[in-house]
Fold this sequence. Notes:
Chains A, B: Keywords: DNA-binding, Transcription, Transcription regulation. Two copies of one chain form a homodimer. By secondary structure, the first copy, chain A, is mostly helical.
Amino acid sequence: MPKLWNETIEAHRREVRDAILDGTASLAAEHGPLSVTMSQIAEKAGIGRATLYKYFPDVEAILHAWHAREIAGHLARLTEVLDSAEGPATRLESVLEAYALITHESHSHQDTDLGAFLHRDNGDHLAHAHQHLHHMVQHLLTDAAQAGNVRDDIPPNELTRYCLSALAAARTLPSEAAVRRLVTVTLAGVRPPQH
Amino acid sequence: MPKLWNETIEAHRREVRDAILDGTASLAAEHGPLSVTMSQIAEKAGIGRATLYKYFPDVEAILHAWHAREIAGHLARLTEVLDSAEGPATRLESVLEAYALITHESHSHQDTDLGAFLHRDNGDHLAHAHQHLHHMVQHLLTDAAQAGNVRDDIPPNELTRYCLSALAAARTLPSEAAVRRLVTVTLAGVRPPQH
DNA sequence: GCTTTATCGAGACACTTTGTCACTGTCAAT
DNA sequence: ATTGACAGTGACAAAGTGTCTCGATAAAGC
Lengths: 195, 195
């Protein structure tokens, strides 16, 4: 196996790949994901159609790759938020709020839940990126539960799904203030029930 | 304008239409919605391809119609539940639980959030069916808020989005018991905050 | 009952999209 | 300089698409 290539060629490939993903996202946003064709994508990306097949086997794979890139970007931002907060409760609230806001602004770009739709992933990319996110929130919830800020009568796994799903509603909300209210309500659901 | 046709022809059309929708759902479930073609659908439904175009203009329209039919069925079941419950709090809980269970079992059929994905609806079918659902839940929440069972510091509209979105997590849960726990948590989010 | 009329269904056609060749040009390694 | 690997492209066969036209069938008018 020859040593890996020079920087130049790999950088170029990345550029082309990104152009493909951007173009596809644009096309999908404009005419709907079902009407996107390999031909359109190739033209939009400024490459030959046959070349496109050297990067991706079909439209579905491209949409998956785009979604994975999107999620990865979100994860990076969330990790920043995570690291800059102190204490289990604060960390949980900060990350959930950040997630909701990201989801909210992603709406205008009209992307999300494409992943849920395209669940032809057989435990691959989507699973990876999304499980990463899931794991992060679950960890936060477990910590907060140990600190007594979160109910412990429900498995953390299920609380995590609840949080992520509830906050997905941020996509449909009109204002940032509404998103913050959504976070409030969602957090109210995970607090220990009083008796 | 000639009076509308006899029952027979219309019944036949409905049969064919249903066969198309069923076949499409089956194909979409098996190979993913993006790879479904008009040719496959026609063959599966047992009609000529050209005939299929007399019913629907393209795959997207068929998926929309199938989704609308699905939602309509769910709505009918929810309306039953709604009518057989007494009192604002009980009604809210019953309907939300029923919705979660329906979502849960719909998972195996792998359908939902296809609607969210195909938001090429310009205020049409999807809007109609889904807004009907939204309206039902919002009404329940408003009643329950007036009775003091639900917080009134958040607009009912937003609480509704929260509920429906949170309960969508039922799709990914493994057991019915987990779904009931999800309903518990979701309801905890909408209760009046204590001070 | 028989014609009229509307519409269902299918064969056929022109066009687009798809997936895969074989081929050229370029860069890195020896 | 030669070799090997790979990006990129034009070309081709196959599949899918949308439309048109034509025959068959069932309701409606006389």
